[in-house]
């Protein structure tokens, strides 16, 4: 029997280091040519498999594949496409198996968050039922850091670093201007359900009085009165106030602030954007001059200031996924385990996918200060090692060198087309 | 007669490298102790002089002063405070002379943009009239890059680098997601009247089809229909569209797209919020899923990815200012002169302040493509060397090490207080 090929796909929002995991998968597979044939990647993620639109990564040079280690975003394309449940759309799963069979694929590496862990598990189960067993391994990835069983998720450490540095830098700017100008600065960051990213901004504060002075977490119900009082108190005490707001900040009833239908300071209806909304509230009630920034994709694509720890872990998890596959594992996810003791150590562990799928890990309450506006020492101890090290890319002409793969298509083998 | 002291102040919006100029001024003055006494800095800029609130920089260690080279924002505080004209408020100018006289200050170094060049010139003129001659030297600084007679302005190169890198990174993100998700990404950047910053984002495009696909300049009247057509055409052709919009984008009649009605101390409108506005327009008319980011202060404080060229020039201009003062110059501004020839070379030149004050340098029309949405080869040739080199700061614990000065006050000598 010929060696089985492998299939790799990127899923959901991309990160600064998801390609480092791809690099780990492909380089490790190449190092085991006797056991693994080619690595095919899904063009635009799982829909590439559904459409039988596969990329032949064997056409890429070793240098190009290695370049993935320092290239942000998804080199093969990713997608937001959640497979329906088996009951609702069994045809999709059957199609995947059909495509995998046609291309002699025996290993399925799915690089994503909670939804893709669930998909990965289902494919593993169904492939068995359909008599074409696949080894399905999930490679964790999400800036939201909300997967269970892993100490942290690749992608998060780099966003955390970006957000902490940006907060520190913008705060210095505001501090030096506040006597006559901007008194309040708001940085809106990602994190719809969990406040991990906003929390990491707390690392910017190294001494009493340092920014950020207020962090808004999705986990803590927004209290308008308490918030305004804190802004005012901070400006009176330190001359300025820096706020880091998670886009998922919400009222007690679960309504997002940014979806509350409130109009901004200028009477324009809100087009999305918590930062301008908060700025408008503050201007109206306290009269302070403000500035605000929305980092949006900049935060998750900022490979130029990625965390070395994050890059190392993303690569190691891709590598471990292939090693697990070679060891005969199925329906598992390599994860990060943190060693005990004061000095940070990490190693790769193994989590069963049925324990990972569809579980969201929130910030523990003891990571957030009692008043709900800051992070505690345990949180700092958790976050600090994740932003360690600066994994600078190479530069040419003042700009980072990011690889562009050739992404050659694999010849189709199936007559049937599948509409996605 | 005892050696004269020097006074140094930071003015207007701070940058990633204004402290590098401060470093150049202070280190050079320290190297000429026989000629220059102490360097006093204005706390929060020129209002520190009006209030007789001076900082004694001689209390800072050599290491702390050297740390300014890699510390963003204004280490002594800056301000948005425009002195009125001599006719309107002669008292302010007289107060400055009074304070300078009381502290035996013979050298006035003012580090700012166009408004402060004007102030610097007036102080030089008035000091003569009042019989207390001062040597007033302006040290250029503005991310807006709009000062005349200098090839470029310190602070701009680093913003340019940040904006080009961020555009490149965010574009990779969008490109990898556009099949099923975001099709349009808008990055709003600074630049009220001149499109230099937005233009620099054009460096991110290295090949045909690369982002940014559309740049909106203040210099080019916004044409709604043409803009929408271009967005649609780009999405159809490349699958996605990345737009970099200058906050100063305006209609033919000069109204800013994002006019907010709030004005700052200089009477400039406070802008912000153009990105969500454009996103809303696009969603309404073309239905594309969008994301947007507003970099705001992040772009001008991003010392973590400052341009080495910019840092070198900022320092050199501070140094040159002191050397000009020692050579007996008055009412001048050291500036950057670009050498001829293909290889980039720069040197320090000298511009008379009366030719600098209140002149704004816009993007030349031949730097902008005929269609008004991009930059030309001459523009690329102009911008490219300004972002060269990565002047990384030191890191500790995953965060950049930025100095915090002690900022000891100089004892007051005047009885009279001056309200600012």
From TrEMBL, chains A, B:
Keywords: Cytoplasm, Glycolysis, Kinase, Magnesium, Metal-binding, Transferase
Enzyme Commission number(s) from the entry: 2.7.1.90
The keyword ATP-binding is annotated on this UniProt entry: no
Site (Important for catalytic activity and substrate specificity): 115
Family: Belongs to the phosphofructokinase type A (PFKA) family. PPi-dependent PFK group II subfamily. Clade 'B2' sub-subfamily.
Functional note: Catalyzes the phosphorylation of D-fructose 6-phosphate, the first committing step of glycolysis. Uses inorganic phosphate (PPi) as phosphoryl donor instead of ATP like common ATP-dependent phosphofructokinases (ATP-PFKs), which renders the reaction reversible, and can thus function both in glycolysis and gluconeogenesis. Consistently, PPi-PFK can replace the enzymes of both the forward (ATP-PFK) and reverse (fructose-bisphosphatase (FBPase)) reactions.
Protein name: Pyrophosphate--fructose 6-phosphate 1-phosphotransferase
